[in-house]
Amino acid sequence: MANASDVLLKDVNKIYETREGKQLHAIKDVSLNVEKGQFVSIVGPSGCGKSTLLNILCGLLPSTSGEVLIDNTPLVGPRDDLGIAFQQPLLLPWLKIIDNVLLPVDVQSKKRSDYMERAMDLLELVGLKGFEKRYPSELSGGMQQRVGIVRSLVHDPSLLLMDEPFSALDALTRETMSVELQRIWKETGKTIIFITHSISEAVFLSDRVAVMSSRPGRISKIIDVNLPRPRSLDIMNSDKLGVYANQIRKEFDLEEKRDLSSRIS
Ligand code: ADP
């Protein structure tokens, strides 16, 4: 049985105090249920509170109100069994690939020997077998991003949070990485919460897509994606995927109109 968590957000709010002493309602009444082993994306325009939500899920930022439950346990701070992949892979240039991959193990003072085999298996899974002793500068952007993903998985986390992990990649590499991530997800069985502003990427990868709107950030719609798996790149521009993408776009347009009319009235 794969090591995977379920996540429940209940009426989560975050109000920041700005430097001018004003209150900024960054996310409002966000509720979301992610089941064990599910792939859920959160899409929304910039400034809608995606990073705020992610930081709350990481246990790094306290919410103002509401509750986050991971496996029915309230989240009160950072957890060891969490994997995080960022927009940039953030590899340390002076460390070899294998040492970069094993960083979470070192940081958590775990025994390297217990994780070496897993690290090598994961590198093989992402097509980087034989690159263990290389340095990050010897790898392409796509390869470095794969190392970042391997690092986020090396300590066998039960939940993987991904913050626009492909945004720095060119369009072609980005699509290839989506297929690869789908495969990694299937083989590892992890629960994944994936943040992106790419609608097609979200639909392609996800079981469910949560659409966020801004001012304040709310989940305005949750869309179940019932496309068969495994999904190949052919469907990226297909009508089947387009139907879901259009639903999401419509939701954005509706939100824009609501926002405009609330500012006019
Ligand atoms: P996104 O990741 O979707 O771009 P963010 O979560 O970064 O959105 O930001 C949501 C809103 O909260 C924005 O209006 C942003 O300016 C504001 N915000 C983010 N962090 C802070 C902070 N530390 N203090 C005050 N306002 C913040």
Report on the structure:
With 265 residues, the chain is an alpha/beta fold. The chain has a domain at 7-81 and 157-264: Rossmann fold (3-Layer(aba) Sandwich). The chain contains eight helices and ten strands. The chain has helices spanning 50-57, 97-101, 103-107, 112-125, 141-153, 171-188, 199-205, 239-264, and strands at residues 7-17, 23-34, 39-43, 65-70, 73-74, 82-85, 159-163, 191-196, 208-213, 218-224. The strands form two sheets. The chain has a six-stranded mixed beta sheet with strand order 6-7-8-3-9-10, sandwiched between helices. Strands 2-1-4-5 form a four-stranded antiparallel beta sheet, with helices on one face. Strand 9 (208-213) and strand 10 form a beta hairpin. Helix 7 (199-205) packs across helix 8 (239-264). The longest helix has 26 residues, at 239-264. The model has no long low-confidence stretch (mean pLDDT 92). Bound molecules: adenosine-5'-diphosphate (ADP). Residues 16, 18, 24, 26, 44, 46-52 line the site of adenosine-5'-diphosphate (ADP).
Number of helices: 8
CATH superfamily membership of the domain at 7-81 and 157-264 = P-loop containing nucleotide triphosphate hydrolases
**Mean of residue pLDDT?**
92
**CATH architectural grouping of the domain at 7-81 and 157-264:** 3-Layer(aba) Sandwich
Alpha carbon gyration radius: 19 Å
| Biggest β-sheet strands, sense, barrel | 6 strands, mixed
Residue ranges: pLDDT <50 for 5 or more in a row?
none
The assigned structural class equals alpha/beta
